Amino acid sequence: MVPSASEVPNPWFSWEYVTSNADLLLTAGREHVFLTVSSVLLALVFAFPLAFLVRRYRRLEAPVLGLSGVLYTIPSLALISLLWPIFGLTPWTVIIALAVYALLVVLRNTVVGLESVSENVVDAARGMGMGKRQLLVRVELPLAMPTILAGIRIATVTTVGMVTIGALVGYGGFGTLILSGFQANFYHAQIMTATLCCVLLAFIFEVLLLVLERVTLPWSRQEVPE
Amino acid sequence: MSVWEWFTDPANWTGYNGIPIRTWEQIEISFWAMAIALVIAMPIALILGHQRRGIFLATNVGNIGRAIPTLGVLTILASIPEIGIGNFAAILALALFAIPPLLTNTFAGIASVDDEVLDAAKGIGMGGFRILSRVELPLALPLIAAGIRTATVQVVATASLAALVGSGGLGRYVVDGYSLQDNTLIIAGAILTALIAVFADLILGFIERRITPKGLREQTFVASEEEEIPEAAPA
Q: Domain with B92 in it: what CATH number?
């Protein structure tokens, strides 16, 4: 079949696209990493105190986890859009929205991890004369750490994917390239390259965090519930 | 116009761009996406679970799904000329993302049925198909229902995003709001898309509890407690 004159080639994979747009991809990648790491760090800053609060005042557990479940079902499109009038076209709109989702995952895993420490172990530690603080720092936290780190890993990988939605307010890392490629008359090479870069980034984060788990927690070799 | 005025304006409750029609579109898109996902995922999960094979696939498909950006898949599908922008691309993309939670939960439910129960079923002369349909399936029902709920809520929530590739649904307001730089429209749309997702979760949670066999309710409690760690990525 002879292609008509109006048919411009529009391949899905083009190495030429990658080489001639290396700067663009690198900038998007840097923004993507920045947004992901900021969101997860912000989530961690709030997740741990909240988890300890829930541990301390058991009555808070049901409402806090219930509310976090409701928040988790709200689409990121909606959350970003609701924050947009407050924070405007700044990275904060995206970071705070994504931090909310990451917070929920880390909070749940921390609470579940601390709860799943065996009563017998806690009894033994008390028998050895450990106080509440020592118990938490030297027994409960180390034993809960595999579940907590799994939560951080899941939250991070999920965040990498969701950063793309930030493209709506101009801060979406590779998402901005995906959306602009789509709007520029279905620029296949750009959409595909940016999507694959995003998957690759998620994979790199996953591997890095898995390695961190293995190195820092030699006792976590057994399967961790995700 | 304030958000309150937008919601009380009768013009936003009628016509093809009215709230009822947009809500219905979202339900329609979600329904077809779930139908496709169920047809693909359930037979695979039931057979693999029954034979207790493919544990690696069933447990890792969720991890892979998490790493793939929804926006990427949506735009890729919508830029394929044969698919085109609109509801069809949205349905396909949503179906793809609904498959992992369905697969993982159904597989886990079937494969975790107690060996002694299976032995007893074999002992009274049940064949493979009868064991699957009369023993494994009822026992796995709480987990399967949880998987369907997770997948459906995720589909309904993500369906809003599909407006970016020209589909209908409540996401239309948000996306149109951004292109028209209309704050009221963006916020009203955000409220509607959040509400429909939360409602879907409530309704399906109710159905989930209702269809769980009485004898399994006690166990469901344990299962749902584990399930509290969300498996599916938010949209």
A: 1.10.3720.10
Instruction: Give the best residue of A12, A81, A86 to mutate against chain B (max B CB count within 10 A).
Output: A81
Closest-CA residue to B71 (of A187, A174, A30): A174
Structure tokens at B10: 């009768």
Residue A141 belongs to domain with CATH number: 1.10.3720.10
* Residue in B with minimal Cα distance to A67: B198
Establish if A226 belongs to a structural domain.
Answer: no
Contact partners, residue B19, CB within 8 Å, separation at least 6: B12, B13, B170, B192
A100 to chain B nearest CA, in Å?
Answer: 11
Is A181–B75 a contact, with Cβ atoms under 8 angstroms apart?
yes
What's the rounded Cα separation, in Å, for the pair B40 and B23? 26
pLDDT digits (tens, 9 = 90+) for B114-162: 888 888 988 898 888 888 888 888 888 888 998 999 899 999 999 998 8
**Cα A182 to Cα A212: distance, rounded to the nearest angstrom:** 37
Domain span at residue B136 reads: 3-226
Q: What is the pTM of this model?
A: 0.84
Low-confidence ranges of chain A (pLDDT < 50): 1-5, 226
Nearest to B68 among A165, A168, A199 (CB): A199
* A162:B228 CB<8 A: no
Provide ipTM, 2 decimals. Answer: 0.82
Cβ-based neighbour number of residue A57 at 10 Å: 10
| B231 and A CB contact within 8 Å | yes
